[in-house]
Amino acid sequence: MAQSQARMVGPEHIQAYWLMLNTKVDADIPNSGRNMDKPGCVAVSFMIGTDGVPQNITVRKVVPQSDLDAVAKSVVTNLRYGPSLKNSTHEPVNTYYIVPFNLPADAAQKQAIIDACKLPNFDQA
Description:
Number of helices: 2
Strand order of the largest sheet: 1-6-3-4
Oligomer: single chain
Low-confidence stretches: none
Helix content: 10-25%
């Protein structure tokens, strides 16, 4: 199935199709870069293929602008998924993952940062 035909599923609904198998993920982190110590997030879109491996990985939003995009992309590259019971056909889906960085302890501030990275058009269930 081509990516353009795959269902668009937001992160809040992905468990209906695919379950993340990772308990931890390695990331490639550079020694230095722009705004890497600031609170922020990176939204990365991708398609979970029939084998549960992310494909067509694309950094879509970086808030605030920083050099953390490569770090977020490396995180998503290392994610692995297994099909949910409902997804016995291993249907590929397009989704995205928000990688948070340096989030504050305050729940409201944390949520405001995550909300800034949400992507439109991924609200189908």
